[in-house]
Amino acid sequence: MGNGNGATLIIPPQGPLKGRVAPPGSKSITNRALLLAGLAMGTSRLTGALKSDDTRYMAQALRDMGVDVDEPDDTTFVVHGTGRLNAPAQPLFLGNAGTATRFLTAAVAAAVDGTVVVDGDAHMRKRPIAPLVAALKTLGVDITAATGCPPVTVNGQGGYAGGRVEIDGGLSSQYVSALLMMGALGRAPTDVVLTGADIGAKGYVDLTTAAMAAFGAQVSHPRDTVWTVAATGYRAADFPVEPDASAATYLWAAEALTGGAIDLGTPATAFTQPDARAYDFIRLFPHLPAVIDGSQMQDAIPTLAVLAAFNATPVRFTGIANLRVKECDRVAALATELSRIRPGLGLEEGDDLLVASDPGLVGQSLPTRIETYADHRIAMSFALAGLKIHGITILDPACVAKTYPGYWQALDSLGVELVDAA
């Protein structure tokens, strides 16, 4: 099975994909729960959690700040929190983990007495964090980010007063979530107020407040643009992590493309994550609607875009400008790699993505090496094209370790042949 660092050729299966595959735990929920457990007093047990690059960066950052984090098995974290974090001896290195970077930037401002540098790899150093930095400054936090991206230097005072903070959530809901989770650590309540553009992927903020409540926080939402967080701190909890809906979209799409029957162990209706909304579109294939608004299921758009390549009619994806500031510029990447398969298959129009669907692609031999831009979602979504087209090769397949280390094994278990093609 080819799943190394070089390249993996997907061999189209001869029939429907059938079997049972359990998606990993949610990355979004795991990283929220890890942080909250690290900030809580007492021992928390997170079950069904994701073990991937992103969550390991978060767990290691907590360890670097004096939190004991045990891993008794492949899906469990046991976190022994003391209600505070210590200044680390070295900068916190968080790779390209956006959740860990944004969430920790706010958390250390309230929980650390001392200086913390929050940093990442070359990709993370291109991802914006200036709106969060500006918001934290209004709360009196001593914080700098010279480039508007990591590294960020926070001179923590071991707490903050609370108060009112405004944030434009249009670029990333993670800024809002970061401020909310920090809010429970204030000495007085914190009001988080949205300004500017509509928030992207508001469902992720709902995930945040639900996780906060599980760890003892009190959050009210008196108006659409305001959350009030009581100064409760956090208490330890046993916390089950639901399967990752973003990961599930690849399996739902593989089922739709091959006419298969893949049991994920969790019905689509049971997911609370925003990307689960993609299922309602996937089940319409090959008759996806002419326009799909991706604003509230952003990480599912790569899956839907590749699926749209085989749709009966063209599909325009709107509301996806935020995809330009993910692990890569996903709007550009999707357009470029779709058109690498067949010229004109993907087209950028402003911040929209137009997929010129072509059901005739099925069964063709179109040798194509897909550039993945070190982006796990580009790799996993374009593997779907290899289920119907001969010659699709995924470069840097190991990048899926960011959120779904077992992805290639999952496809293999369903009968997809994968060949090393370095």
Strand order of the largest sheet: 20-21-1-22
Distance between the termini: 13 Å
Number of strands: 22
Secondary structure tally, helices:
12
Task: Estimate the strand proportion.
Answer: 15-25%
Mean pLDDT: 95
CATH architecture level-2 label of the largest domain: Alpha-beta prism
General shape: globular
- Kindly state the percentage of residues in helix: 25-40%
How many domain regions? 2
Determine the structural class based on helices, strands and strand pairing. alpha/beta
CATH topology of the largest domain: UDP-n-acetylglucosamine1-carboxyvinyl-transferase, Chain
Uncertain stretches of 5 or more adjacent residues: none
State Rg: 21 Å
The largest sheet is: 4 strands, mixed
| CATH fourth-tier homologous superfamily of the largest domain | Enolpyruvate transferase domain
What is the CATH top level name of the largest domain?
Alpha Beta
Notes on the protein architecture:
- The chain contains 12 helices and 22 strands.
- With 422 residues, the protein is an alpha/beta fold.
- The protein has 2 domains: 7-24 and 243-420, UDP-n-acetylglucosamine1-carboxyvinyl-transferase, Chain, CATH 3.65.10.10; 27-240, Alpha-beta prism (UDP-n-acetylglucosamine1-carboxyvinyl-transferase, Chain), CATH 3.65.10.
- It has a 4-stranded mixed beta sheet with strand order 20-21-1-22, covered by helices on one side. Strands 4-5-3-14 form a 4-stranded mixed beta sheet, with helices on one face. A 4-stranded mixed beta sheet has the order 6-7-9-8.
- A hairpin with a 7-residue loop joins strand 8 and strand 9 (152-157).
- Helix 5 runs parallel beside helix 6.
- The longest helix has 14 residues, at 98-111.
